[in-house]
Amino acid sequence: MALLDWKPEYSVGVESVDYEHQEMIGMINELDVALGLETSPEAIEAFLGNIHAGISAHFALEERAMRAAGYPEYEAHKEDHEDLLDQLRDLMDHYAAEPVVGRKLLQSTLGGWFKGHFSSFDARLHRQLGGH
């Protein structure tokens, strides 16, 4: 069973952003599978680096779409993005220092944050940009 599943309510109505949301969900699910296997710490760290880079690029795209649309909650949404990136960096550092504990923290944290972000910040963005 996947940690996260794509749901229509996650759509913000911008095709490129929605595509990247689906890609991020796929990356998080792949990491979750890797964490459940006996994957080497080096491979997990590389995977985390790729996820961080992908999420950073995605957030830049989403923020550009929000600015272009004059989205009124831009600052709060951007701050939530920055919080996630800070949390992800902290998780990466913790994993590098203590892989066993870091593995459990990653498994318990990533899915919940994305679900929360999708159902709150991105849901409001969907109503604004998607016109629904």
Walk me through what this model shows.
- The chain has 132 residues and is mainly alpha-helical.
- It has a single domain (11-129), classed as Hemerythrin-like (Four Helix Bundle (Hemerythrin (Met), subunit A)), CATH 1.20.120.50.
- Helix content is 80%, strand content 0%.
- The radius of gyration is 15 Å and the shape is elongated.
- The relative contact order is 0.18.
Largest sheet: none
- Please tell me the total number of domains: 1
Overall residue-averaged pLDDT value: 85
Which class of secondary structure composition applies to the elements? mainly alpha
Strand content range: under 5%
Described by its quaternary structure, the protein is single chain
Under CATH at level 1, the class stands as Mainly Alpha
**Residue windows where pLDDT falls under 50 for at least 5 positions:** none
| Tally of strands | 0
Radius of gyration: 15 Å
**N-to-C SSE string, H for helix and E for strand:** HHHHH
Q: Using the alpha-carbon principal axes, give the shape.
A: elongated
The rounded distance between the terminal residues' Cα atoms is 30 Å
CATH architecture: Up-down Bundle
SS element count, helices: 5
CATH topology tier name:
Four Helix Bundle (Hemerythrin (Met), subunit A)
Residues in helix, %: over 70%
CATH homologous superfamily title:
Hemerythrin-like
Topology of this protein?
Elements: H1 15-36, H2 41-69, H3 74-97, H4 99-119, H5 121-129
